[in-house]
Structure formats: C-alpha cells, structure tokens
C-alpha cells in the first residue's frame, strides 16, 4: 500500500441500497493453514532474493511465478502480463476460471509486490495469499458461477498502482464494460488489526465520495459476512491508496477489506476490536520487519473467509430478470411536462448527450453512466454554467406505461445526480415517483444553501405494492428558491424481478 491520495467527487444516496440478489451458493471456510503456507512461500522467496519482493527484483518475478504455477495446476487460464516502469519489467498475474457470463465479470485483486525495504508479508502477501487460496478453493469445488470469475495479482503497486493502472488502461472499452465489480484486498492480516470495509456508499461522509454505482452493494455484502460472525466493521475511504483506484476511475464498482497500515489505533477502536490503543495497526508497515511473524492469524482467517463469502455470494447469485429498462440511447416515449403544469423556463428535462458545466465544481455532468445519452435538465452548457440550468420552477418528465408482473419481488433502480450552487435552498429538489393506482415517492433529494457538485449515485426501491399494475415513472426537479444554480440527471432506469 502506497501513500498517495486521489479524490472522488462526493454524493449522497437518498434511500438505502439492498444487497446482492439471493439464491447464492454457501461459501466455504478458507483454510488458515493453507493461506499461511502461501505466506511462508513468499517469505522464502524474499529471503532467497535479498529480503525483498519489490518491482524489478528477482523476488517479485519468483513470487509471480509461484502464484501462476499454483493457478495453472488448478485449471485456471493464466496470463503473465508484463509492463515497464522505472526501467524495470513488472508483471501482473491474471487468472480466469472457466465458465460464467463473459459479459458479467467479477474481478478479485491484490498487489503482490513489496517495498524494497522488506519481504512485504502483511503488505501485501496477506491479500495475495488470501485471494490465491480462495481461487484454489473455487477449483477444488469445481464452482460453476453465474458470473465469470477473474483473479489478479498486481505488480508495482508500491510505486503508484502501476500494474493495475497498466491493466485497466490497456483493456479495450468493451472489455472494461464487462467487468461489473472489482474487489480489492490489501493488508488483511495486520498485527494490531482493525476491520475496515471500503465505504462504497459514502455513508461515513468523510474524504472522498462514493464508489461507482454498485459499490454500495459490494460494501453491504462484505459487511453482512462480518455481521454473521459478530465482528463490527467500520468504513474506510476510497482515498486512492490501493489498486481499486484505476477501476473506480473507469466507473467500475469496487469494494474490499483492510486491516490498517501506519495509522494509529484509537482507544475507541481498541475497545471495539481489541488490540493496543496508541499503536499502529501495523508497526512494521513498509519496514524490514514485515515478515511472516508480522501477521495476526485471527484477522487473516476472518478476512480470508470474508473474501470467499463475497466471491461465492456475488459470483453465484442468479441475476434478477429485467422487466423493463431504459438507457436513453434511443427515444422510448418519455413525455415532458405530462400534466401541463411545469413552470421552468429553462433547463427542462430532455434526452440527449449532455455537455459539462462547472461552477465551483462539476454541476452538469458531461459523462453518462452508460452510452452517450441520459435524461438531463437542459443538455447544453452555454457560455456560463447558469445559461441552461433549471430556472423558473418545476420541470417534469414521465416514462411510457410499464406493465408490471403480478409476482415479485420487484425492484426499481436508477442512476441520478442533483447539483446546485450555494445559492440554492431546501425548496429546490430532485424527485422520483411511481404512479399507478396510487403514487409513491421513491426518491426525494432536497437542495440546501451549500455547494453540491454533481456525481452519479444509484438508488433502488421496492415496487411490490404495484405488482400487476401498469405504472409510469415520474421524475421532476425544481429551482424553486429564486435564481439558484440547479442541475439534475438520470440514467439507466431499470425494473427487475
């Protein structure tokens, strides 16, 4: 794990996100002894190669060959992907398990390199060994997942995420789009451990914002495992310090666990998890003493089992059937101002390819969640950010009629954002309603007298109350507090059963 920081634009969700769909296969208990045997091999490799497994050193290539050899023998299709950084050759080990939907890939990764100062057994032999043993258990059980499973061990993470960035940068756009989730495990056996889960939904409200749409579900899945064994967790920020960074930058949902690095465990954390307050989670972080003695077996065992739980739960869950969806790439019959009561004079809802606007940060997003088009409040940018924002009150748009099946469970999901300047107020809003024999508000985000930058978020809502009905989705937004800057967008609306 390195010491960089990368910001992600913040946004908040108005309603809770559910977990991964049910009907997943039960996960195995990963053998702690087997994980520690892999760590012993990595320690031996480092000892035989100058005490390190760093990028460009013989110990790193030997580590990559060890991991690849284990996977080849288990029936994975492996690739040793080479790249160059600082005049030295680095390697990523990529391993694909046969089967699963090739257009729906779950990727699990950990960095394999150490710093030059030491063997890097906690950082990050622990994550590497844990995902390796999880992959080998996939093979032992001849798992037949619904998703395609891909594991990765990254090179040169300690020099700035070089291996994972090379991998993501060199994937064709279509192949990047096939990766639907990325799980990252970096330092999962710290000797004075915490139990941290990446804060996919930004519920902590600190530091960087949420991960891409879907990250909240990954967070909840991992939290569910720790809840099941009675271990409390806390969020950790997507601060760009590990290999999830290139994936979230590419819009791929991410999650994972972390047991702490050079940060100091607080008294409250020691009360929560045990261990020693006032000391680092890993006092040997980036030091020569990060050896096989620098591991907390309990933390390593719990995290390895959490990894397996996440892999089995996510990869084997049967995806829900799509009842209706709209990505807005073509016109499907949405109606602007359906009740003829709108008052907005500019910034009316429209389907189109949006242009960026910026005023003290991003306001209208020029990037969509998928494709080129979305629903947006005045897609043009104009000379200034306020030229085509919502002015004059309410603008609304309504979907075509949607016939829902009589049985569920039925769920609505959509990507959305609301952005406004500090001249907004709580009278401004973004709202989504479902209209059938009754009308239900499923999302209501109000404004405030504070700057809010645009960032895509995902919201979901249950629609079982509308089963068997023909419904419409009604979206409206308002600049109701005078001459405030207000923008909103919607993409990828879907109803599933």
Keywords:
single chain, 497 residues, alpha+beta, eight-stranded mixed sheet, six-stranded antiparallel sheet, 23% helix, disordered N terminus
Report what the structure shows.
This protein is α+β, with helices and mostly antiparallel strands. It contains 9 helices and 20 strands. The strands form 3 sheets. The chain has an 8-stranded mixed β-sheet with strand order 1-2-4-3-5-8-6-7, sandwiched between helices. Strands 9, 11, 12, 15, 18 and 20 form a 6-stranded antiparallel β-sheet that branches. Helix 1 packs across helix 3, helix 2 runs parallel beside helix 3 and helix 3 packs across helix 9. The N terminus is likely disordered.
């Amino acid at each position: 794990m390195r010491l960089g920081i990368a910001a992600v634009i913040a946004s908040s969700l108005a309603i809770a996100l559910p977990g991964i769909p049910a009907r997943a296969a039960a996960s195995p208990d990963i053998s702690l002894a087997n994980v520690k045997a892999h760590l012993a091999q990595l320690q031996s490799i480092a000892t035989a190669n100058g005490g390190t497994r760093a990028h460009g050193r013989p110990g790193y290539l030997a580590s990559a060959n060890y991991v690849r050899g284990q996977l080849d023998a288990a029936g994975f299709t492996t690739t040793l992907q080479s790249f160059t950084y600082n005049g030295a050759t680095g390697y990523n080990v990529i391993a694909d398990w046969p089967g699963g939907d090739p257009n729906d890939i779950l990727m699990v990764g950990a960095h394999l390199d150490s710093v030059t100062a030491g063997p890097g057994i906690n950082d990050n032999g622990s994550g590497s060994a844990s995902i390796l043993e999880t992959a080998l258990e996939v093979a032992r059980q001849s798992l037949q997942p619904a998703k395609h499973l891909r594991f990765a061990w990254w090179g040169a993470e300690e020099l700035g995420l070089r291996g994972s960035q090379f991998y993501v940068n060199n994937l064709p756009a279509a192949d990047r789009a096939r990766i639907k989730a990325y799980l990252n495990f970096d330092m999962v056996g710290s000797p004075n451990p915490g139990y941290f889960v990446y804060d996919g939904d930004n519920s902590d409200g600190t530091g960087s914002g949420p991960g891409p749409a879907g990250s909240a579900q990954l967070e909840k899945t991992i939290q569910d495992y720790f809840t099941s064994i009675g271990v409390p967790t806390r969020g950790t920020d997507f601060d760009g310090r590990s290999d999830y960074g290139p994936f979230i930058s590419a819009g791929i949902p991410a999650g994972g666990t972390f047991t702490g690095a050079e940060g100091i465990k607080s008294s409250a954390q020691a009360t929560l998890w045990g261990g020693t307050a006032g000391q680092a989670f890993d006092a040997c972080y980036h030091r020569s003493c990060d050896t096989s003695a620098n591991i907390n077996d309990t933390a390593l065992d719990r995290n390895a089992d959490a990894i397996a739980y996440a892999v089995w739960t996510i990869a084997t869950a049967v995806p829900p059937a799509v009842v209706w969806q709209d990505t807005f790439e073509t016109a499907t019959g949405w109606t602007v101002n359906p009740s003829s009561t709108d008052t907005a004079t500019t910034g009316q809802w429209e389907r189109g390819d949006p242009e960026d606007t910026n005023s003290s940060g991003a306001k209208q997003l020029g990037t969509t969640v998928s494709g080129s088009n979305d629903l947006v409040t005045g897609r043009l940018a104009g000379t200034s950010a306020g030229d085509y924002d919502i002015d004059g009150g309410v603008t609304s748009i309504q979907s075509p009629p949607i016939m829902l099946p009589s049985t569920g469970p039925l769920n609505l999901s959509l990507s959305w954002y609301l952005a406004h300047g500090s001249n907004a107020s709580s009278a401004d809003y973004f709202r989504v309603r479902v209209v059938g024999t009754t009308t239900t508000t499923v999302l209501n985000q109000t404004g405030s007298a504070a700057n809010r930058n645009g960032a895509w978020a995902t919201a979901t809502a249950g629609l079982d109350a509308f089963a068997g009905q023909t419904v419409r989705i009604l979206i409206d937004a308002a600049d109701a507090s005078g001459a405030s800057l207000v923008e909103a967008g919607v993409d990828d609306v879907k109803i599933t059963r």
